[in-house]
Amino acid sequence: MTETISGCPGMKGIILAGGGGTRLRPLTGTLSKQLLPVYNKPMIYYPLSVLMLGGINEILIISTPDHILEQFSGCWRRVRLGLDITYAESPSPRGIAQALTIGSDHIGNSPVALILGDNIFHGPGFSSVLQGSIRHLDGCVLFGYPVSDPGRYGVGEIDRDGLLLSLEEKPVRPRSNLAVTGLYLYDNDVVDIAKNIRPSARGELEITDVNKVYLEQRRARLIELGHGFAWLDMGTHDSLLQASQYVQLLEQRQGVRIACVEEIALRMGFINADELYLLGCELGNSGYGSYLMEVASHAGAA
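Structure tokens predicted for Glucose-1-phosphate thymidylyltransferase (302 residues):
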């Protein structure tokens, strides 16, 4: 039987899948960016898989009104993953932190994990790091990735224990090379914090301003995603192609599926082996469906 990893009940998840995907036009002329294919799966499978690996099964997807009912609900209609997926509209993009105000009812009195809908996280031991961060959450946890051009990103500086010392958005003289990625863990205080930050000059609710409140309270940590880890942002045609090539290379070399949400649902105990086998059958003669049935059989499907 497949070993079930203990989840982290109580934390809610939010995937911010808003925006018009203007940098990916004409691909996004009729299709949401988060439903574009990244090798053999829709883009949104990748952030969804991260939340699932954290043991989170109550997930809100925030997108634009013309994409929600038409596309996202249909995407999951055939995928029974043991998840409670709901949807909310973002009429116009007003910054990442807007997701926390739109999703305040979904969050309720719980902590929350917020992830951007065009990010890929992949690396050894990531699920253990993520689950440990959730279990010991006190304030906020960010994830940093070393980059060669930190001036293009929000940049975090940490002490040797991972406590966040400074946070700057696109600094001229960066204090570190750690770019803040699109995955954020917050305790429930974030709901009030997000509601009380002032919009920027562009009228946006900046996630950096939310994080700085935790920084000032000395309750912000940043975990460095080190060697052997990949963080990919799929916001341009080139980065979308590079992400597809990365997934293709690893899957073909290692014989496993990256961000296979059905397999992760089994691993996390959201569904059982028989349910996984049926999901594989529904995908017909595709290689993806055959993979699911093989995993289910090894896990004891009848």
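The domain at 12-143+180-271 is CATH 3.90.550.10 (Spore Coat Polysaccharide Biosynthesis Protein SpsA; Chain A).
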